[in-house]
ArsA/GET3 Anion-transporting ATPase-like domain-containing protein (Daucus carota subsp. sativus), 354 residues
Amino acid sequence: MASGEIPEGSVQNVLDQQSLKWVFVGGKGGVGKTTCSSIISILLSRVRSSVLIISTDPAHNLSDAFQQRFTKTPNLVNGFTNLYAMEVDPTVEHEDEVELDGMDGFISDLSNAIPGIDEAMSFGEMLKLVQTMDYSIIVFDTAPTGHTLRLLQFPTTLEKGLGQLMSLKNKFGGMLGQMTRLFGVGDEFGEDAILGRIEGMKDIIQQVNKQFRDPDLTTFVCICIPEFLSLYETERLVQELSKFEIDTHNIIINQVLFDDEVVESKLLNARMKMQQKYLDQFYMLYDDFHITKLPLLPEEVCGVDALKNFSRNFLSAYKPAVTRGTVEELEGRVSTLAQQLKDAEAELEKRKKG
Ligand SMILES: Nc1ncnc2c1ncn2[C@@H]1O[C@H](COP(=O)(O)OP(=O)(O)OP(=O)(O)O)[C@@H](O)[C@H]1O
Ligand SMILES: [Mg+2]
């Protein structure tokens, strides 16, 4: 991009970036992460062979957005042929699975030694699963900020943890075998089986870790609203992402009040002024980002039709109703005139005959 040029205010760049494999969508609670990630996945399904959207929020609300129940395996979204959705919970340990080769006890004891390893492990299992499924692109609807950042650190946590484990194995050799038996792991699932599995995951994790840091493959879309706390949190998010070397160059500012009707409400006028102050700051701070503004609607954005309808604001700047009103008005006037002309012609014809 030439310096001084303002990036386009849409997510078209994300749709155009054909090399992308992972898109993370995150931000503060309630700002519109699920709405935006759902719409981005719908838009991507038009240009990609297959799209998977994953919710990693324990409060799962993809089901609300799409008005369809999803599970922890990919389900086709109603009305689509290539858009799949799944809801996973990285904080829940493999509840209903059989004692994963005796891994659970072992891992949970391990987690005391390496904090976050159990969560990282189930995230790793999920990534491993998803990697083998061959989707063209994967969109993550993440939980509010703090959680997202931890999620992005998982591959690093795992890599470190596994490294530690390997050196432990080398140091203590057979003792680890005794330990695993102590944790209730049978001989047939001895240390080698467990370490083998962890090592197997290590390759995937290292691979994913590298992919998350590759701007050709991964990007993070920040969602926010034009308010102080959200601006502040976005800045924190952007800084953390750069610390983790994760690419981000899209910000979506949701719930913007547009001055498209003569607003007589003092409250709305005051809020619009407040929003403008923060909008200005967003544009100043992130002049190298694609900033997309979304209007606050009078109603929720629920169901595929509403999502599709709202998606147009992701592709081109929202046009306030004033302009739309004017066009509609003009169209109305033109059709009235056309009708009058027709009537006049008919009248003329009648008189000629008569
Ligand atoms: N621009 C908008 N205008 C009106 N309603 C909106 C808009 N954007 C989102 N909503 C509605 O606001 C609610 C919260 O949005 P959403 O679930 O996308 O937020 P979230 O960031 O995912 O929340 P959480 O942090 O709880 O996961 C939803 O009911 C959604 O339909
Ligand atoms: Mg959500």
User: Anything to note?
Assistant: The mean pLDDT is 82. Strands lie at 22-27, 51-55, 75-76, 83-87, 137-141, 218-224, 250-256, 290-295. Residues 226 and 276 are 8 Å apart (CA to CA). DSSP finds twelve helices and eight strands in the chain.
